[in-house]
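If you are new to this repository, start here. Below is one unmodified record pulled from the training split, so you can see the exact layout before writing a loader.
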Amino acid sequence: MMYDVTKRVMDVFGSIAGIILLSPVLIIISIAIKLNSKGPVLADTPMRISKDGKLFRMYKFRSMVQGAHELLQKNPELLKKYKENSYKLDIDEDPRITSVGRYIRKTSLDELPQFFNILKGEMSLVGPRAYYPFELEEQQKKYPNSREFVKIILSSKPGLTGEWQVSGRSLINFDKRVEMDARYVQRRSILYDIWLILKTIPAVLLSRGAI
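And here is the target side for that same chain:
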């Protein structure tokens, strides 16, 4: 109980501080996206799963051309590669990514709008990855042993950063990723959250495992 209250206080103050301090960056990125390609500033991404299976729209800067999800569905070869690679594609091989999008994805700047998800209580500063419902459904069929890990993960809010985010991100397959996320949920503490936040800084600067 004390952990949950303290964590929420950290989330509220941390997200407000992030929005205020990074507001110039948020504005510059928004302008760059509008000048670089047609479409909204924020990505129109499929719903993600939060705590207890609740669905929410995760805010991200748009790094792809408008209608990117539909383009993926219409390209069988690209879609097959996307699914085989644990629902991700390398930045340099995905033709849907814009020039500005390539930069903000490699530097993780596309994730900054998630401070608003945190402020709304849909996410936390630190937590498991925010998974797509279809991703969990299909990947659990591929990796049956991951089912218990997924149950543990869905007892916690997803995070802006977390154990998998600072340990290689796209370099980690689904089965290992959910195991790491479940391990975080089981051992979480305020000190561990702070340690992961501090560890995020060099991971972002080095663009480690960015997709």
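Two things worth knowing about this chain: The longest strand covers residues 124-126. Strands lie at 48-49, 55-56, 124-126, 159-161.
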